[in-house]
Amino acid sequence: MEIRGVDPIRGITQDSKINKIPRRDERDTSDEVEISEEARQLAEAAKIEDVVRQSPDIREDRVAEVKAKLERGEYNTQEVFDQVAERIMKALGL
Predict the structure, then answer these.
(1) 21-31, pLDDT tens digit by residue?
(2) In the record, which residues are listed under signal peptide (predicted)?
């Protein structure tokens, strides 16, 4: 038996018709992407985490405001004492 290569008349053209790639205008170009609710929540959490990470740990303006109110005695009222006591009890589950 002797193998002489590709048939010069038929060649490989018969096989190439089977694997023909459709022209660009014949292809379906409508793609869809669905994002799960879990993925949306994770993306939102990542955004929030990024904002928190970029925020300063201590709000100096707020600290200065509270210090000034303490020095002026603005927190020395029964209403403030009751509110603080209530929040402590709530935090402790009482």
Answers:
(1) 666 665 666 78
(2) none
Kind and range of the H or E element at 67? helix 60-72
Q: Residue holding tokens 């020095």?
A: 71
The pTM assigned to this predicted structure is 0.34
Instruction: Give the least confident one: 21-25, 51-55, 69-73, 88-92.
Output: 21-25
Encoded tokens for 41: 């929540």
69 contacts 75 by C-beta, under 8 angstroms: yes
Task: Please give the Cα distance from 48 to 41 (Å, whole number).
Answer: 11
Domain boundaries, the chain: 36-94
Sign of CA dihedral 72, 76, 81, 82: negative
Alpha-carbon distance values, 23 to 27, 29, 79, 87 (Å): 7, 12, 78, 70
